[in-house]
Amino acid sequence: MREILKLSITLAVVGLVSAALLSGVNNVTAPIIAERQESEYREALERYFPDFERFESQQIDNDYFDLIFDSSDRLVGVMATVGQQGYDGTIWYNLAFDGEGKIVGVRIISHTETPGIGDIIATAEFQEQFIGKSFADPLIPGEDVDIVTGATISTAAVITSIRRVVNVVAENFLGYETLVIDLSALPDGIYQGSAPGMVGLITVEVEVAGGRITRIDVLDHSETPTYFIESYPLIPELIIAGQSFDIDTKTGATLSAKGIVDAVQAALAANVGGE
Amino acid sequence: MKHKPSYWQEFTKGILKENPVLVALLGMCPVLGVTAFVVNGVGMGLAAAAVLIASNLVVSLLRNLIPPQVRIPCFIVVIATFVTIIEMVLEAFLPVLYEALGVFVPLIVVNCVILGRAEAFASKNKPLRAVLDGVGSGIGFTLALLLLSLVREIIGQGTILGPDPETVIHLFGADFEPMILFAQPAGAFIALGLLLAVVNSVYKRFNIK
Amino acid sequence: MEKLLSIFFIYIFIDNFVLQRFFGVCPFLGVSRKMETAIGMSMAVVFVMTMATLVTWLIYTFVLVPFNLAFLQIVAFILIIASLVQLVEIVLRKISPTLYQGLGIFLPLITTNCAVLAVALLAVRQEFSLLESVIFAIGASLGFSLALVIMAGIRERLELAEMPDVLRGSAVTLITAGILSLAFLGFKGIITL
Question: Does residue C158 contact residue C172 with C-beta atoms inside 8 Å?
Fold first, then answer.
């Protein structure tokens, strides 16, 4: 009996020391990791959109769009985040459009295409051929853009995907104006909507009663847990208290907080009747 | 009682005579998995070496405190702790390497080299010897990864210091058609097989054993 | 349903754990000398991998994530796998001594089989549901078994072949594995998730 006790205590002590140590290191590195992920995307935004002041997020089917506004609230561009099935796994990439729907940047976020063959999609030469193209261009392989021999499936997948996204952007966002949600015009009910946070989609459920938002619950998210608690339940409380989406989003967890606000707006926007 | 090997021997045995990869054939998964580029291969080698040295030290310090029955679980927790620390540090400070190594970073936990050294050596020796053993085996492991990734990157990509476009050097000019096979999984197996054959014959020639 | 079938077949043929992803190469080289041991090891791996993925998925989703302990993932998973292997060993010895005799000697080797930890980690990282994770584990372990059994079949003949001394043993086994991997490359792109 004493023997078993001794063994269990040893194991428990080793486990506890390990957990304590890891939690300490995690506290140091987690903020750095979160900040870096956020700043990489911001850097890309600032590179493609020199006038970048703020952005609004939207989702159409499985594509994510950030609408970029300048300091005078004019739409200066759209940044799309798209996942496309390649030859071997999903290719995630950003596509940056200017205010006229012309492509100003292609940025591969991650892919698992075959090294030495399909990974040509990650090269500048392949990506540069899309710069300046828009919905007015055919974007047809062999005509105005080139597929790469030997890597036909990977390159054709990206071209087809870009052609689709170019049209989605042209149809939905050109001439777009800032969304105004008139709460008093909303019928009572429970609405759901999603918007991208820092890591993945944040899905919320919003209850509206008597022209007021009465309840906001996050149903699903994949944000960094230690960060997410800084925005939730705080941000929903602020929205309900002010009955407004103009929230001073918390520094350090800005993208998570913004994701919640965007998701609530997305839930309600679908019921105001679109634009 | 047998004469104890000198500190120098303790250090060098892991590099050539008992090289964990080339001689003992341990820890093969990362050796094959991350060696398409030299940067990744060496990064992996150093990460594993860091875990190995740290876990050897801790295991050696704890060797008289831990009852033999729960030895293995304790070693595993020690190793897993260091692996998690390395993973967090890589993600925070070397994100490109972290992405490239992917799931092979957490898999350092089950790298037989590390548990093997902890069980066979560190749990029976004083801290200084354990650390020297860890440094030696770590260098040996990194060396094997370096050799294989050199072969694979030069033949399979025609480059060195890739894939980062800022550091990459195209060894044979832009028109060179690399032998893509060596960049692929199949080429990893074949290259390592050939490398082992070369190492075998070199060891035989110079009588390293 | 379609996704489940895709996962199942992808990890047997296309993303074969040993030949394309390099998980579980050590046992692949170590126990593929004889067909009999290869089959024993395969059965043990299928069993432990499926159980381990089930348990780690549940622990991760219902304990680690709700309590903000995701950073303990590696420590927790490897401990779960190690204790699970022990448990399987004890239960097997009690319930079915015959099965234990067949699989028993392989069980301790499985803790350090990186394919087991890999399947548990990847199931969580790819955000598979519980059912998808289990199918993923079964597919991956069957893929491992397939590679192991094919290799054992080849090696039994390879023993008798004439070759230079320096190639004998692991060198020629690795080159053979490379050629096998090349053959499996032919499945690439057939099914996608």
Answer: yes
What are the tens digits of pLDDT across the range B165-193? 778 888 887 777 888 888 888 999 999 99
How many domains does one find in chain A? Answer: 2
**Backbone dihedral angles phi then psi of residue A216, each to the nearest 5 degrees:** -135, 120
- Ordered strands of the A212-220 beta sheet: A189-196, A201-209, A212-220
Say which of A11, A117, A124 has its CB closest to residue B180: A117
CB A121, CB A155: distance < 8 Å: yes
∠ CA A89-A93-A97, rounded to 5° = 150
Nearest to B128 by CA among B4, B2, B1: B4
Domain ranges of chain C: 2-185
CB contact under 8 Å between B85 and A25, yes or no, is yes
Which of chain A's residues have a Cβ under 8 Å away from the Cβ of C188? Answer: 87-88, 114
Q: What is the 3-state secondary structure (H, E, C) of chain A?
A: CHHHHHHHHHHHHHHHHHHHHHHHHHHHHHHHHHHHHHHHHHHHHHHHCCCCCEEEEEEECCEEEEEEECCCCCEEEEEEEEEEECCCCEEEEEEEEECCCCEEEEEEEECCCCCCCHHHHHCHHHHHCCCCCCCCCCCCECCCECCCCCCHHHHHHHHHHHHHHHHHHHHHCCCCCCCCCCHHHCCCEEEEEEEECCCCEEEEEEEEECCEEEEEEEEECCCCHHHHHHHCCHHHHHHHHHCCCCCCCCCCCHHHHHHHHHHHHHHHHHHHCCC
Q: Which domain holds residue A127?
A: 54-172
Q: How many CB atoms sit inside 10 A of residue A136's CB?
A: 11
Instruction: Note whether residue A14 is domain-resident.
Output: no
Sheet arrangement for strand A75-85: A54-60, A63-69, A75-85, A90-98, A103-110
pLDDT at position B1: 47
Residue B131 dihedral angles phi and psi, to the nearest 5°: -65, -45
Written as one letter, the residue type at C77 is F
Q: Are A130 and A190 members of one domain?
A: no
Q: Could you give the dihedral angle defined by the CA atoms of residues A93, A97, A103 and A105, in that order, rounded to the nearest 10 degrees? A: -50
* Counts of helices then strands in chain B (DSSP H, E): 8, 2
Same domain, A155 and A190: no
In a domain, A210, yes or no: yes
Q: Which stretches of chain B sit within 8 Å of chain C by CB?
A: 25-30, 32-33, 72-73, 76-77, 80-81, 83-84, 87-88, 103, 106-107, 109-112, 115, 181, 184-194, 196-198, 200-201, 204
Cis check: omega of the bond before C27, within 30 degrees of 0? no
A86: nearest Cα among A170, A151, A16: A151
Same domain, A162 and A257: no
The answer to whether A57 and A196 have CB atoms below 8 angstroms apart is: yes
Q: How many CB pairs under 8 A join A and B?
A: 65
- Quick check: C75 contacting A, CB < 8 Å? yes
Q: What is the ipTM of this complex?
A: 0.89
One-letter amino acid at B78 equals: V
CB B109 within 8 A of CB B58: no
CA dist., res. C27 & res. C29, Å (int): 5
Left, alpha or beta for A187 (phi > 0: left; psi -120 to 50: alpha)? beta
**Do A209 and A262 fall within a single domain?**
yes
Q: Which residues of A touch C127 (CB under 8 A)?
A: 222
Q: Which of the four pLDDT bands, split at 50, 70 and 90, describes residue B79?
A: very high
Which residue of chain C comes nearest to B116, CA vs CA? C112
Domain coverage including residue B179: 13-205
The predicted-structure confidence for B137-151, as pLDDT tens digits, reads as follows 999 999 999 999 999
β-bridge pairing A63-69 and A54-60: antiparallel
pLDDT at A250 over 60: no
